[in-house]
Amino acid sequence: MTPAARDLVAGIGFRHATSPAEILALIERACDAAGLPGLRPARLATAGDRAGEPAIRAVAETLGCPLDAVPPEALIAVDANVPTRSRRIEASRRVGSVAEAAALAAAGPGATLLVRRIASAGATCALALRAQSVTQGP
Q1: Each residue of 82-132: pLDDT tens digit?
Q2: 9-46 b/e (C-beta count within 10 Å ≥ 16 → b)
Q3: pTM of the predicted model, to two decimals?
Q4: How far apart are CA 56 and CA 40, in angstroms?
Q5: Which domains does the chain show, CATH number per domain?
Q6: Measured between alpha carbons, how far is 119 from 17 in angstroms, rounded to an integer?
Q7: CA 23, 108, 117: angle at the middle one, nearest 5?
């Protein structure tokens, strides 16, 4: 089954100096890794305190999709389903991976990770699939 683009959420973690081009290239790599070359996510999600950053806003505009600012409590609520563990991120954010937690939280209850966190020099990306894609088919 091929996931529908409308059900794909890209979770993004990034450093302040990261360019929109780097984040876009990472999303493309994640879609390629999922076997979905050329597919664009329906939503972007990142930690709430980073959602106002110009780089991530530019990425959302380029992709033509909404950007979810995920609050810390929502990231923490899905942490049990986050397989990647970064000690640095756990210490500062109380989650193993911002990208994975943001993707899962924004995709909603029953979401699954399609691609675990991948990284570039300044960003991380994970892809989650909303539950209805898994249960209802294409």
Answers
A1: 999 889 988 889 998 999 999 999 999 999 999 999 999 999 999 999 987
A2: bbbbbbeeebebebbbebbeebbeebebeebbbbbbbb
A3: 0.90
A4: 15
A5: 5-136 (3.30.420.180)
A6: 15
A7: 35
